[in-house]
Structures are given as C-alpha cells and as structure tokens.
C-alpha cells in the first residue's frame, strides 16, 4: 500500500472548496481519501447495490460514510435527523457529512466526535476524516483516556483557527498561551462544579456575543475581570449582571491584560464546540500534554497525545514511594483489631501529610499532578477506613471534617521550570486536580468543601534549576522525594551555555565535557542529599548515562559522594500511543544516600516489552546486579584479546581520492592505473553491498602520480588540506596522494562502527588487501575465524550493548571501550577449532544467499532460519568457554563478564569463574 500523502489531501481539499461547489464535490472528496474509482462511479450512477441513499442527492457507503446536501436548512438539524434515522441504523455508518456549501458539519460515530466548520475551512480539518484512508486510526478506539484525547483534538482545532486569523509570530505567543490556559480552566470549571451553574461560560458566550465573533474580545475581557476580582470589590458592580454571577477565582491568574486574540464566526463555533465537551471526564493531568500537542500540529495529527506518558510516570513514582505506601496501607487494612487499625490508619495519614515532593524540571507539572493525585487517593482510602471504624457518622461541621480528614495539600509539592508558560500550566493543573480531589473527599464526607477562591499555592518557581540554589525553592530539611524527567540533551548537541552549565556543576570531574545535560540534575540532587540524607530521588534519563564513556565520570563522582542505586528500569522505549512515534531509549534510576535493603531491577526482553521485576543484591552504574565499584574504562590496548583492533582509514581528502560510480569507468579505462584502484568499504557499503572505489596511491611510482586524471585529484586534495583550520590536516598536504591512515593488511575482520539497534548481532565480515576500509569501520588485521566467532557471539554482543554508547538509538561500537576491555575466554586448541568451524558455517550460510545484503540477512524480521540456527550454535559453544552451567539471561552473562573484567584489571586468576554456579 502506498504511503499516505497528507499534503496531497490538503491541497486537493483546498481546490474543491475554493471554487463554485457542485454535485461533484463529494466524489472528488472520496477520491482524495483514496476510494477506488469503481466505487465512486457506482455512487455517481446511483447503483442501488452500492449507494445506500435515502433520497435523491444522498450518497452513502455501508459502514463508511453518508453525505447529504442541506438545501436551505440548518446543517446541524439535518445531521441530527440522519443520526436518528432508523432506516440507516442497519448500515452501521461511521462518518456523516452535511453541508450547505457555506458550513460543513460532520460526525464520527465510532469515536463520538464532531466538527462544525466553514466549508472553506475543510482543508484545515483534513485529519478528522483520515480513518477513511484505511491507513490511519484515531486512538480514541484504543486509548485509555478517550475524553482526554478528544479534548486535545478540540483545543488543537481551536488553536489552528486562532493562529490562522491572528498571524502570531513565534515570539508573540505568550498572550495566546495565557488566553488558552484561562479558557481551559473555564471549560473545566463550568463542567465540574467550580462555577455555580453547569455550562455557565459557554451559555453566556452563546447568549451575549454576536455570531460573527466581533465582540468576543470584550466578552472575555469582562469575564476574566470578574474571575480575578474579589466578591466584595466594588468594581464588580460595574460588570453586566450575567458576568457578576461568575465567582471570584484568583487575582493572580487573571491579572494580566491584553492577552485576548481576535475572533470570527469560525473561531466562535470552535469555542462553543469546546464547551460542549464533557470536561468532567477529562483529567487535569492531560493539560500540560494538551498544550504540547496543541502547539505542535505534527504531534497532534499523530493523535496519540502525550497522555500515555502517565504510564511511564508510574515507573518513577511507583518504586520510589507509591508501591511501598500502597503495600503499607493494605497491611494496615488487614489488622483485625478495630482500635489498633484506626490508630495505624491515623498514623499512616500523618505520614502521607508529611511527604514533600520536588520536581526540578517539572515542565507542565505532570509528575507533580500525578503524585499529588495518588497520595490523595491513598489518603481517601485511609480516611474511608477511619470513618468505617468511627461510630460518629455525623457531618454537621464540614470545615472541621475537611481539616481533620484532608491533610495532603498541593502546598507539599514543589517544582522548578525554566520556561514561563509550562510553569503557568503546572500551577493551573495542580489547582484543578486539587478541586477534583476535594470533590472526591466531599462525596465521602457528605458535602463538598468550596474550591474558590483558589488559595493553596502550587509551589512552581520559574527558574533555571542548574544555576539556582535548590534550597531556595525546595524545603530541603523536609523534602522526601525528588522526581522528574529532566531535559536529555546529548553532550554533542547541547548549546554552549548548556555545556558551560555542565562544566560548572562537574568542575573537578575528568571528561565532564562528555556528559549529557541530564546528568546535571543527578549531581544537583546529590548535593541536596548532603543537606538532608533522607531524600530519595528517581529520574527518567536517556540510557546513554548508563553506557559508554559517561558511566565512569558520572557514577564515579556520584558513588564517591555516597550515592547508591536502589532501583532501576533498564532500557525501554519511552513512547506514546501515536502511530509511527519513534520514541526515545530511556532508563529510570532511583538513588539516594540512604541505601535500601531491598533493591529491584526492572528488566526488559527488548525496549518495547513490558518489564520483569527482579530483586537483586546490588545495582551498578550499568544497571546490572554487580558491584558498584566496577567501571569499564577505556583501554588503549586490549586487556584480553590476542590481536589489536584499529580504526579504518580516514581519507581526509575532501572526496578527491574517492572514485564515485559515475567516474569509475573513466579511471578504469587507464589500464596502468588499475592496480591502484581498490574497493572502498565503510559500514554502509559492507551492510548494503554497495560498491565504491578509491585511489590507493601509497606505493604508486611517480609516473602514476603524474597521470593527468590522478594529478588533478591530488592537487585538489592538497588544496583542501591546506585550507583546513586543523594543523594536523594542513600537515597532511605534504602527502596529498595518500589517505590520512594507511592500514591495508592482507586480510582483516571488519566491524561497523554503527549498526541498527534492531539487530541481534552486528554483521561483521572479512576483506582482503584489494579492499580499503574507511574510518566508519574498525578492523582486526589478520583476524581468524576464531576471532570472528568470539566477536559475533552473544557474549560479545551483550557486552557491546552495555558498555558502548549509542548514536541516536543505533549501536556505536567502540574499540577502546568494547573490544579492548572485553574479557576473552581461555581456550584449548580443540575448543578454538570448534569455534572456527562454527564461524565458518555462518560465513558459508551467508554465501548461500547471493544478492542478499548483510543488512537484510541480519534484519530480525528477515533473518533466514539456518543463519539464526548457526548463530545459536555458535552462541552456545562460546558460552561454554566461559562456564559449564548455561546462562539463563543476558543479565547473567553480563554479571559473569563484569566479574571476569574485574579480575583482569586487578591481574587476578579468573579460572575459578568457569565452575561458578
């Protein structure tokens, strides 16, 4: 099936809605969404076997779509009649479209969603109908929170309509953001009892404003003034009677003026449509993610929203505090003695009320909002159990009851956020979640405590967490937990100012310049633990901080300051439900200075799998059950391998010594030049069997260098090198006919430096002296099939995945970190011969698939069964070289390799490990 071309659909919709509309509109619409020509023709000719029309001019397809033109009628009334038509029920139609060619209304029955737009605005709403293509589905059918996602959709369409009308520059969006945050609050308030009347704002908007939206700015100006003015303030007397009925909410939230955009008929309809949503079903947790989705149309049109990250939030707060609290409450509820149970419940509630949580990179507040909600739900369960033991069921003094039984407050939560607007949204989200929880407590206690005016503070500071003293925001002595998802920022991609922040936070750490940006939060949290050693912390991070060159400088520093890892999620893919979402490879690390007795690793069979929980004795910096003190440090030479590994040859020639396919025939035509034309292989050429060539003139006589074709290339290479800012490169201009490196052994094993993370094995190979290897690969000169067998084994692969870094998500093989540190087994000649035979078998099987690239052979979805079997046999044999007892998991393999490494670097005998259980 061809890929969906959304741009083509948008362009086509603009064309069919810009001219004079006619009866062919619907057929053109169907064509744009990929309906077969024969189907469209049958509709055009009213084929009764295909068209399920109720009357002339109707067009419909069973289970798919029904269209009617509204001639002189209100499109919404026509749509309503179709939805209630009993004769259409049996056709199970999903989409209904009605238009008078000025307005267009549509309804998606499957996900209970609708649009009401100007006919000319259809192109901006193309995504509403994308499920018709068969290549796309709205996630409402399978998402856990359909109301949340529908709210994202509605707010997204409203945002698009406002942006189109107002033409904001990116640096002018603050006012629009403030307006949308207030609007979001009002939607929620009018549907959840914050405002005294249901739908109060939407009703007022419909009754007090013109249909063209021209007076909406004045309406919102007046409404926001009321919401920000105390009840007793005389200024409220000057407001219209309908507006005076709105309560005072919070002066700070509604103090800013000049934030209201222009409106028109279309935007007004979007505003009213938003008010028709059931906001009581929408979680305040979604608000921050909603604004991310609203601000990024591409993310929004994937329709997965970011709400499902709540699942990943629990990977942080669950093992950090929530799982333990849940278990503690269950134990208390199991106490048989009523008086003792009540005593323990009250102590448990006091414990909940004493918890203080900080997020030093809180963004829109999701981690804090979810944590607050979960602690309140625990408190609610405890309070209910307390009341069940209390003979006094009266609720006459609600305030006293609320003070006695609702003690966990948003005052106990603290956040730091660099950007103003996310911090703003975090405060609003906390306020709204507080209201939700007050309603839940009120339902239990017999009445609802008033939510207005908003008084409790959501302690969100708009500061740079890396240049601020955390004790000025967090109550360090009382703080219980630090949580969050700090910015990732790879060491090579962060800005100069961010790099300066990293170096300032790690002033005495060697190789600090190689640390990712997120590591700064680890160090700052550790420093705060010096003030209060009881603080425990857990962060989401890219998995690079537990791999490669970052491990020793980061964790060496943290461990030296007394930090211990208490739990960790090994590499998983942090992703949402959006289709095609690439996700990021992450870990969760829970750490503190107070070491827990019970430690847990959450292990993943693959990054997309669900975790398996394993209790372990210790967790090291690589997130393995191994000693904290063991770090794999770069080695300039192999500590165990028989043969050295070298980097391939860097041309450093500006491309002038490379012969591209278009020029190959010209060079090959010069017969005496042929001995100096060699194949050129980098990782791509090796994996995809692509042909490239180069001039290898290292031993070429003068007469070859003077051939005009060659001399021109040499001169251009000299010029490129002389123009370089690098002194080393300029020095190479003295030998412009040669690559920078001159490694060309008789034969060698080739190891690509970068390989897809999907592959179980990095595809390696052999080349001879007729081929030059580029610096995109490593080489083991004169490597044997035995060497190849060890390097292609699962033992070596799990070592590589753990100690090497990644380029984006791909494996990045490192000679100094991986090859030179890998603990090779001690073998007899017989064992060596067995490995060689198994390695040759793999090479022969590869050759039995001529024309198939290594990339395809090692694609996990395409790997031939005989090749997979050959690798399995090699894996088993190699593992037998390490110990008698088979390994049950990669964690066991790594634990064994780490112990061997430790003995190798300390020059201890490791033979006893062969017999380990």
TrEMBL record:
Domain MmeI-like N-terminal as annotated: residue spans: 20-164
Keywords of the record: Methyltransferase, Transferase
Gene3D superfamilies in the record: Vaccinia Virus protein VP39
Domain MmeI-like DNA-methyltransferase: 341-603
Pfam annotation, one family: MmeI_TRD
GO molecular function ontology, one term from the record: site-specific DNA-methyltransferase (adenine-specific) activity
One Gene Ontology term from the biological process aspect of the record: methylation
E.C. number: 2.1.1.72
Record domain MmeI-like helicase spacer: where: 174-254
Reactions mediated catalytically: a 2'-deoxyadenosine in DNA + S-adenosyl-L-methionine = an N(6)-methyl-2'-deoxyadenosine in DNA + S-adenosyl-L-homocysteine + H(+)
Record domain MmeI-like target recognition: where: 627-826
Ranges where the MmeI-like C-terminal domain occurs: 827-906
Protein name: site-specific DNA-methyltransferase (adenine-specific)
Organism lineage: Bacteria, Pseudomonadati, Pseudomonadota, Betaproteobacteria, Burkholderiales
Encoding gene per record: yeeA
């Amino acid at each position: 099936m061809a890929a969906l071309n959304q741009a083509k659909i948008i362009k086509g919709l603009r064309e069919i809605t810009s001219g004079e509309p006619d009866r062919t509109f619907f057929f053109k619409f169907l064509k744009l969404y990929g309906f077969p020509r024969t189907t469209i023709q049958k509709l055009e000719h009213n084929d009764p076997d295909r068209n399920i029309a109720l009357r002339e001019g109707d067009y419909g397809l069973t289970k798919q779509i029904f269209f009617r033109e509204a001639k002189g009628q209100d499109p919404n009334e026509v749509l309503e009649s179709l939805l209630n038509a009993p004769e259409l029920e049996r056709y199970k139609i999903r989409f209904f479209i009605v238009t008078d060619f000025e307005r267009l209304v549509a309804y998606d029955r499957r996900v209970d969603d609708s649009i009401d737009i100007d006919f000319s605005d259809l192109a901006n709403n193309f995504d509403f109908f994308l499920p018709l293509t068969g290549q796309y589905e709205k996630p409402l059918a399978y998402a856990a929170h359909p109301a949340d996602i529908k709210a994202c959709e509605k707010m997204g369409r409203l945002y698009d309509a406002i942006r189109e009308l107002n033409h904001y520059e990116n640096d002018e969006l603050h006012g629009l953001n403030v307006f949308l945050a207030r609007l979001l609050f009002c939607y929620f308030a009018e549907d959840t009892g914050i405002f005294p009347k249901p739908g109060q704002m939407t009703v007022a908007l419909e009754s007090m404003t013109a249909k063209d939206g021209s007076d909406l700015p004045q309406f919102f100006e007046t409404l926001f003034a009321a919401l920000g003015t105390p009840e007793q303030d005389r200024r409220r007397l000057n407001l219209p009677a309908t507006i005076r009925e709105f309560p005072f909410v919070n002066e700070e939230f509604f103090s800013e003026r000049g934030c209201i955009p222009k409106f028109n008929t279309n935007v007004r309809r979007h505003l009213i449509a938003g008010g028709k949503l059931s906001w009581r079903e929408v979680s305040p947790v979604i608000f921050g993610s909603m604004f991310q989705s609203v601000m990024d149309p591409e993310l929004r049109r994937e329709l997965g929203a970011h709400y499902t990250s709540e699942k990943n939030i629990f990977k942080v707060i669950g093992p950090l505090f929530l799982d333990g609290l849940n278990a503690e409450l269950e134990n208390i509820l199991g106490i048989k003695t009523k008086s003792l149970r009540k005593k323990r419940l009250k102590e448990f509630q006091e414990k909940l009320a004493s918890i203080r949580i900080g997020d030093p990179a809180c963004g829109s507040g999701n981690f804090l909002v979810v944590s607050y909600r979960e602690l309140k739900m625990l408190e609610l369960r405890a309070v209910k159990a307390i009341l069940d033991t209390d003979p006094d069921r009266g609720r006459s003094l609600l305030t006293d009851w609320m003070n006695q039984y609702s003690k966990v407050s948003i005052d106990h939560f603290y956040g730091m956020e660099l950007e103003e607007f996310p911090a703003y949204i975090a405060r609003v989200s906390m306020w709204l979640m507080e209201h939700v929880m007050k309603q839940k407590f009120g339902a239990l206690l017999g009445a609802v405590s008033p939510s207005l005016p908003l008084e409790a503070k959501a302690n969100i500071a708009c500061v740079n967490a890396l240049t601020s003293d955390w004790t000025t925001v967090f109550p360090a002595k009382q703080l219980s937990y630090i949580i969050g998802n700090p910015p990732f920022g790879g060491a090579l991609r962060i800005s100069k100012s961010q790099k300066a922040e990293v170096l300032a936070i790690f002033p005495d750490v060697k190789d600090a310049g190689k640390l990712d940006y997120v590591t700064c939060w680890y160090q700052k949290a550790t420093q705060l633990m010096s003030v209060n050693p009881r603080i425990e912390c857990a962060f989401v991070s890219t998995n690079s901080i537990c791999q490669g060159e970052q491990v020793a400088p980061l964790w060496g520093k943290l461990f030296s300051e007394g930090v211990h890892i208490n739990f960790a999620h090994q590499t998983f893919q942090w992703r949402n439900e959006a289709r095609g979402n690439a996700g990021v490879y992450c870990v969760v690390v829970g750490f503190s200075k107070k070491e827990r007795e019970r430690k847990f690793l959450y292990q993943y069979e693959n990054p997309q799998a669900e975790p398996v929980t394993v209790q372990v004795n210790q967790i090291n910096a690589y997130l393995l059950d191994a000693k904290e003190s063991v770090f794999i440090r770069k080695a300039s030479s192999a500590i165990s391998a028989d043969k050295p590994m070298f980097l391939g040859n860097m041309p450093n020639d500006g491309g002038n010594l490379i012969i591209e396919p278009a020029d190959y025939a010209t060079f090959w035509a010069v017969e005496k030049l042929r001995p100096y034309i060699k194949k050129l292989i980098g990782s791509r050429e090796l994996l995809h069997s692509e042909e490239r060539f180069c001039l290898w003139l290292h031993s070429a006589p003068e007469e070859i260098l003077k051939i005009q074709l060659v001399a021109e290339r040499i001169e251009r290479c000299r010029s490129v090198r002389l123009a370089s800012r690098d002194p080393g490169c300029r020095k190479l201009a003295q030998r412009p006919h040669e690559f920078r490196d001159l490694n060309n052994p008789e034969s060698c094993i080739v190891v690509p430096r970068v390989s897809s993370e999907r592959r179980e094995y990095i595809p390696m190979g052999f080349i001879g002296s007729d081929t030059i290897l580029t610096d995109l690969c490593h080489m083991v000169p004169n490597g044997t099939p035995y060497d190849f067998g060890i390097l292609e084994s699962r033992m070596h692969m799990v070592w590589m995945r753990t100690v090497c870094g990644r380029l984006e998500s791909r494996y990045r093989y490192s000679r100094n970190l991986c090859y030179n540190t890998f603990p090779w087994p001690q073998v007899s000649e017989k064992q060596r011969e067995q490995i060689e035979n198994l390695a040759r078998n793999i090479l022969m099987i590869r050759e039995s698939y001529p024309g198939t690239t290594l990339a395809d052979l090692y694609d996990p979805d395409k790997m031939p069964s005989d090749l997979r079997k050959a690798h399995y046999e090699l894996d088993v044999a190699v593992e037998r070289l390490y110990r008698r007892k088979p390994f049950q998991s990669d964690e066991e393999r790594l634990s064994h390799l780490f112990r061997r490494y430790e003995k190798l670097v300390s020059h201890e005998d490791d033979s006893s490990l062969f017999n380990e259980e």
